Every structure is written in C-alpha cells, then in structure tokens.
Records
---
Amino acid sequence: MSKPFYITTTLPYVNAAPHIGFAFELVSADIIARHKRLAGYEVFFNTGTDEHGVKVFRKAKEEGKDPQTYVDEYAKKYRALLSALGISPSVHFIRTTDAAHKKAAQELWKRSFNAGDIYKKKYRIKYCVGCELEKTESELENGHCQVHPHLDIEIIEEENYFFRLSAYQERLLAFYEEHNDFVVPPFRLNEMRSLIRGKGLEDFSISRLKAKMPWGVPVPGDSEQVFYVWFDALVSYISALGWPDDEASFRKWWIETGGVVQFAGKDQIRQQAVMWQAMLMSASLPPSKQIVIHGFIQSGGEKMSKSLGNVIDPFALVKEYGTDAVRFYLARHVASFEDSDFTLEKFKEAYNADLANGIGNLVARILQMSNQYVSNPIKFPDTFYNSDNLSGEGKAVLTHLHKFELNNAVFVLWNWMQHLDILIQDGKPFEVAKTNKIAAEKQLIYLLQQLAEITVLLEPFMPETSRRIKTAIKANKKPENLFPRKE
RNA sequence: GUCGGGGUAGCUCAAUUGGCUAGAGCGUAGCACUCAUAAGGCUAAGGUUGUGAGUUCAAUCCUCACCCCCGACACCA
C-alpha cells in the first residue's frame, strides 16, 4: 500500500483577484504534490479560499453585494486559477464558509476552551474616526493615523475572547528544537525563536463583536461574538480532511503522514509556525510536519500595485504563453525562498531562451532525425520515476525536490538538455546517417532514451509538455511546435 | 534601535572545512556548421569579489571598523 502525503497551500484571502504571488505558491505546491505522487505516495493536496473577516465584509459592502454573493464570486475566480495553472485535477478545494469547516472551527474552539486556553478580556483598541477603522500600533505614526494625521486616535474598550498563546512559549521552543527542519528555510525558524526568546508571546484576541462585524463563524455559546478570521482560517488544514467527524481520514492524512506540509508566504510565518501550532497543541492534536516559506514576487524592483501599473496577472500570462510556460518560469526563475523580480521582459527572454530555443528546439531536432533514421519507437521508461535506474542527473533532480529547491531541480534538467545538444553537435548523426545508417540509429536511440528520462522527470513541473513529448517519442514522430518563438 | 541575512561579470546567482588562471545561465560580439523553432555548437569580451585595515605562506571565505540593501521585532486576514 502506498504511503500517504498531505500538502497544502495557504488559503488566499478573497479581498482581491488572484495575483502572481499566489500563483507561485500554488504551482510550487502542485509540483511537490505531483512529484510525491510519481514517487509512489498517495497525495492529498489542498487549497481553497479564506472568506471571512472585516475586509471581505467591507469590500462586499463597497460593491453593493451581500458577503456570501461576493465570496462566491471570488471562490470561482480562484478555482479558475487552478485550471489556468494546470494544478492537479484531484486537488481539494476548501472554502472557510463551508458548513463543515465552520463546524470544525467551532469544535477546535471548544477543545481549546475546555483546555483553559480561551478567556474573555476587556482590551483597548485604537480607532481612527476618519477611516472608521481599528488601527494597529504599526499603522500609526507619532500616535496618529497616517491617512488622517489631523484627527486624534480614539481609544475604545471592547470585550473579546483571547487565546492563551503565552502558555505555549516553552513547548513551541522545545518542539522547534526537536524538529530543526520544521521551517524551510531555517532562518525563518530562527526569526520565530528570537521572537519568543526576546519579546515573548502575548495572548491574542480571537473574536470580534458581531454587532460591528457579523461576517464570521459564530463563537460557541456566545451569540454576541464571531471568530476573528485567523482563528477560523487556520483550522481549514484539518477541516479539509473532514476533522473532527471523519476519524479515518484524519488518522490517515494527519497522523500517518506525520502532519501536513504547508506552503506559505513570508508574511505567514508567525501564524503558521507559531499560532497554528499552539492551537493544535491546545486542542491536543499533533503539529504540522513542515512549513515551507517562500518570498514575494516584485515587479521592476517595486512591490506590485495597481497605481504603479506593474501588476502581473497570471491569467493574462497563461493566455499569452500557455500554462506550462508559466509553470516553468515560476519554478525556474523565481527564487524558491527569497524575493524575486518578475517583469514581462524577463519572462519573454526566458521563454525564448529556455523553452523555444531550449527544450522546444531540442525535441524537434531529435524527433525529426529519429523519425527518419530510427526504425522502431524506443521503449518508453514509464516506471522510471524514483527508481534505482535513474541517472545521476535524475537523482540530483529528486534531491533538489526533496529540499524544495525547485529552481535548482529545473536547472539540472536544462543542463542535461544542453548536454544533449552538445552530443548532437559532436556526434553529427545527421551526417553519419548519409554513410552509416546503423551508427546514426544507435546515436539517436541513445538521444531518445536520454530525452525520455528527462521527460519523465519533467512531469511534475510541466505535465502537459511532458505528455506531449512522451506521445512524440512513443510515436517516433516530431511533435507540433511546443513553444513557438516570440518576437 | 535590537536581532538576523546579504553586498561576487550588464542581469540572476555559484564557489565543499581559507588553497591552482573566482564559475554557470541569460544578455553581448565573432567563427565554423545545418538535423532543428534564423534554433543548436565553439570562442571571446566582461570581476582590484561594497570600502579601509588586520591575521596568514595563502582571504570572496576569518577578525575589526565603516558604507549600503533586505528581513524579523505580533493581531498586516
């Protein structure tokens, strides 16, 4: 029986259309999901949408819609992104407005409450009358709202529920100590360590007054309050498995797997590696397995913003270049862990160099010749993935994938292809064929075998391209232009 | 400010414990070729490795000072 593996993205918040940063996270997770599947695991791959909270509530109001209608529309947009990016069709899509999820969130609340980790407390919030918004300390400048510096910040008292995060400092530190690779890359975990050791953890509020903001999961046993969106959204990683009702599913995907592998942006570390783990501890549930933190995508050295006009739309990119080209670029040219710059010029340059001139041309030249000089199609190594027969390059690809270094994994594949180009140049099968067909055929069979191995390993990154090359090799026929050159 | 990570070819990045002429891809220029998407190959140009000092037979790597960039410092969903 194959081993289970559970991987999830963060659920994007639906206050804006999908952007390239989330496309990167989705594609990265999908590559790992496909890789694991090919390596023989049974994979549960989860994504979805986070739909509660004040920002959604307000945005819906702005657009003159009721919140449910608004989030339904956005959920549809995010689902559309999945097919645009060629995400595994078997992906599970959870919405935090699903009835089962809300029930799960309430169940976790109850467990945490029973454990004595949830209590009610009056606290002061800073409120800007101009914005009609609650402000955090970091949003203020010299004690004033940056948008309305002439207005005084009002202090309002509100009674909310708090989660006893402070009680988990030592347990979290001990857990990090035992699991040094809990967060990838490791420096992100060190940030959390120094946060806990330095300033320490404070309890945080996990509910909001329903009268002010009704768009949330009702707090069990208190009709006045709803969940603060964080406390609800994080539970999605287990509600997606059917927790708490489906015990068999939870046991298989959360216990047997050793927990979930979570992909998340660098603004998510605290929530995912600290709060969420403490919540699990509080409910007496095992922790996540690993958190993989990626950087942000910038455009032209600046943060993407509508006003700068440098926003990269993943849908437009797919329309112009195709799904696999976008997947390739995200995997190869966006740094796996650091911030990266993304411009249309860079994308086009990489498309022409790596896809049109690279893999596209290589496949065309090999299959053109093999079609002429190789009498029978080679036996395609369908079960090659993860086998002992893999070449050194193949093993290197898998090693990089194991470390979530997607860009290095793809780099190895492209080096390998360049090596085949050199073999063709040196061996000149096209010339040898004029005088010695058998020798030429032998050379070409070797090239086809190498290409086949590359094709197998390419599948997690570019599934459609891999499939097309595989078909071409099996038919021993040159495929249609894989990546037409863009001028 | 405190803590952490960086500053290497036009661009993006490599350089096992300090050790041969600091590497690769892209981009640029030239050469020969033609199976291929005017693609591919070969060659070349391009670096006082942020600055100054120190340790050492030897420093991109270690030490100190300085300059610059980035991240964390909590409810940003």
---
Amino acid sequence: MIETRQIKNFLVLAEQLHFGKAANLVNLTQPSLSRQLSSLEEQLGCTLISRTSRSVELTAAGKEFQRLAHGLILSIQDAVRGTQAVAQGSRGELKVGFTSYAAWTILPAVSKSYLETYPHVRLHLHEVLPADLTTLMKSGEIDVGVTVHPFDGSLRYQQLFSEPLCIALPSAHPLNQLADISVKALEGSRFILSRRDTFAPLYDSIMQACSTGGFSPEEIIYTNLQQSIINLVAEGLGVAIVPQSMRKFNHPGVSYRPIESSPEIDCGICWDPTNQNPCLLNLLALFPPAA
Amino acid sequence: MIETRQIKNFLVLAEQLHFGKAANLVNLTQPSLSRQLSSLEEQLGCTLISRTSRSVELTAAGKEFQRLAHGLILSIQDAVRGTQAVAQGSRGELKVGFTSYAAWTILPAVSKSYLETYPHVRLHLHEVLPADLTTLMKSGEIDVGVTVHPFDGSLRYQQLFSEPLCIALPSAHPLNQLADISVKALEGSRFILSRRDTFAPLYDSIMQACSTGGFSPEEIIYTNLQQSIINLVAEGLGVAIVPQSMRKFNHPGVSYRPIESSPEIDCGICWDPTNQNPCLLNLLALFPPAA
DNA sequence: TAAAAATACTCCATAGGTATTTTAT
DNA sequence: ATAAAATACCTATGGAGTATTTTTA
C-alpha cells in the first residue's frame, strides 16, 4: 500500500530534484529517502525519477504522479478539515421539526439566530403534528423539535417563550362596546376551538381560563387551524380564546381583548438527550437553561 | 500524519461496525485495530466512532469522514493507474514535428497507425522547417520528427519510405508529344525549384538527376512550396523535377513522366535516443528497424 | 576526482500480538 | 453472565541511521 508519507516525501523530492536536500527538508537521511522512493516505485511498478550520481529528473510518469499526488495531499487535508468541521458542528445537517404554533412564534427567531452563528449548516425544516414529534425524534428523522412541551420523559424540553391568551371577538360583537371584558362575559357565546388532539396544551389552557370564569363553553365549532379560527371569528360565527401572538395577523374584522391573569401557553425546543449531532449540541448551547 | 492504512481500515470498520470482525478482514487483531482507530481520531482531533462494549456506531464526523475517505481511496487508486498508464505510454503526450514533405507522404499513415494502438495519447502536430528540427528536438519542444534524414549525429533516423523523382511538364509543352523523355531532354528548359535551404535532400537529388543527364539547370525560378511549383508548371512557366508522390495533386495542366534510374528521396522518423518519453518508445516499437 | 546516489549493516521505534480488564446489557 | 471494546505489556518488523561503495561527468 502506498502511504501518504511516501507521497509527501516524493513531492518534496520532485521539487528539489536532489536526494540530500530533500531528505533534509523532510527530516530524513539521504539513504532513507532513496529507499523510500525505491519502495514507492516498486509499488507503482514504474520509475518516477531517473537518476544518476550527476542528475535527478522526473520521468513522464513521475510528472504525472507529481500532478496527481499534489491533488491527493490537498484532498486529504480537505477531508481532515471537513471532518473536523462536522465534528464541531460548523458544517452538517440539522433536522428541525416544528409545530404551527412554533411557526407563528419562535421558529423564525430560533432559525435566524442559529444560522447567524452556523451559516454553513443545512437546516431541514419539517412542519409536524405535535403528536408525531416523539416518534419522529426517536426514529432519527428530526434532531430537534420547536414546539410546545412534548410531555415525554425520554425527551428534554427547554422553554424559550411564553405568553398569555386573549379573547378574539368579531368587531361587530355587542361586547365590543364595553371597555373591559372578563372571560365570564363570554359565557353562552359560541366558541371557535381547535380539537384537543391537534394542540392539547392550548385546548387545556382555554378550558382552564373558562373554568376560572366559572363556566365551560357549550356551543362549539371545531376547526384545526388557528388561522381559520380568526377567519370564522371575523365572519361573526363566534368568539375564541387564542394565544396573544395571533394578534399579529391583525384581521380587520377581529378585536382582541386581554384576559386577566390568563394561563400562559409556552413554546421552546425539545430534543433527545442521547442524540450527539454536533449541530444539535451547538443549537442547545445557544439557548442555555436559565438556571 | 494520517496514513492510507488507517483510512482503509477505518472504512472496513465503518462498514462492519464491529472491531473483531473488521480486524479479521484486514488481518489485524481487535486490540490493534482499536488502537489504530484511536490514533486516527487523535490525529483528527475528533471522535469518528462512538463505542461501548455493546454498540459501535459512526458519529456525524465519522459519517462525513467515511464519505470523504471513500473518495480518497478511489483517488489514490486512480493516481496509481494514471501513473502506470503514463509509464506504459498508453496515456500521455507526444509532440511531433513534421516537414511539409512528410505531410504529403507518411505523416497521415504514421499518425493513424499510432493512434489506432494508443488512442488516449494526445498528439501535438507541429509543422516545422527541416532546419529547425534538431534545435526543437534538443530543447524538448518535440519528441519525434517526421521528416527526411536530419543528418545530425546525436539523433537517430529510421527510414519508412522512399520514392523516385519524376518530371513535371506543362500539358502544352512540346516534349509531351514524345512517348519517352529522358532528363537530358530538359536541358535548356526553365526549371522551377525550391531553394536548397528549404529542402536540401530534394534539391541535391534533383541536381544529381540533372548531372546524370549531363547538364545543370540554367534558367531557374525559385519558390519554396512544392504546391506552388506544380501551379507554376501548370501555367507553362517551366518544368520541374518533383517527388513522385506529387502526382497525387493531379493538376490538369501538368503531365508527369518517370525518370530512368532516378535518385530516391526518403522520409522517416527521427528522434533523440536519450528521450525516454514512453509514448516515443511505443511509436518506435511500432516501426522497428528492418534489420 | 568529486559530488551524489546506491548499498550494506545495524538499530530502534512503533505497529502489532497476547493476555487481561473493563463495561454495558 | 456474556460479548465486546479497552488496556497493559511484550514482541518483532520494517523504517531509519551510519558507514561505505558505486557511478558519472
């Protein structure tokens, strides 16, 4: 087998065209370098350098091998640097699973801040259902979830953001005449809700807010996208309780009102602590626990 | 320095994901392979394989290095094969200097026959003056001359072809009435000739033919291209003695007549015997001395 | 004759082997 | 308890050094 040491020393020799000088440069003695070249030539089955005691010059094959060997050494150096870059997470791939709530809230900021520090990492962003997150993470299809708390003991979760809920009313709704509205005022109104199985933490918080107000919604329309909820409210089909960040949609047919001591809904990142993907570790280092 | 042995063994290990099995495949023992990998990882400064007594798996850096290392091994094999191909002359470059006389005669056949056997060699064909041939060959700008005898003691020459001269007459010339013409009949005619310094062997042969006929040309028009000589003969400006191969131009205004026991003009290849270009050696082997 | 590569031999560093320990399931 | 990797220690091969010979201009 041809060893890189032989290749490197050949390149110096091909440059110097003098065994003694080349041997000095690579910290060998002339006889050692002489034998090393012979061994290389024997392995290749051809002469690379035609030499007498008075002249040392490359053969045609020697010139070709010099050209190719130079490329080889560069490739090896590139491979070393490439591998180190992946080990440090400055290159590589990070598969991100996010829920739609994350997409409205922290996903843009998290992605932007990560890519500012690690611009050469390829991010794969997959929108997933909260219910699928654990499975996808265990099977290695995603490295990190940007989502509400996954409630899975084998995953870790780091909260990055939380916000209160607020009331979403049609602009034309009679309650809009009042300066202050409590949740209790919504009793008996038709509620627009997403089903518990699409977004349990939000559903539970809404129910909690209602029960604090002393009632539970009776007339309900279910729809599974938050954007649809806002549209249905705008059409006057009912009222809703939504995360405050929904206000950014700024729909002209909808008014938002704060909820006193509202339950909070939170969002963050979750990951499998046994996943050693350096890109994941770097992401986690960017968002360290408050502790 | 990372050695190819380490790279190859890593690839087997990355494939097997089992130190014992991989060690067997590469004729090592498990502890040796274990240490060899540690050494590789130390040189790279990162872990390639995360391992416990129960599981062996590639890290992200390990997968990247596997990908890159695979390419490296292929590149090394390519370099070996490429170098061997150049050494055997099946790839490479052959710089050919040819004179115009060779271009009308043997150059096409020589090139074709060489390229049939060595299709991957890059031929560089340069038209040169016979006078420049020796200099260009000594300076390495051409490897082989396709030409008349160079008369240079440090070069070798292998004749491949020879032909007699013939008389070229304007079709309208009075001598054309006769069935047989001897060179002597041309005495007193105006001769179209190229100067001795452009093509000495031809010039000398023509003079020899005339002196055999018992005269030497008096009225002379000099022009240095054989094609021009034919054109001038066709216009009736004079007669010429040309190599028989000029008949292939088949100019309607020119008749050709044989010359009895004409001197021959020859053509072949010449080369510097110290030039070891494998492509040259292969060419010479295709045209061995008649001996 | 002199400069430089090749050869002969000697030696030692390090790659590799053997025996054993550690580790994780 | 067992399978497999790591470690400790020993061995030996082959790469490297020193001294010398050969070669060629």
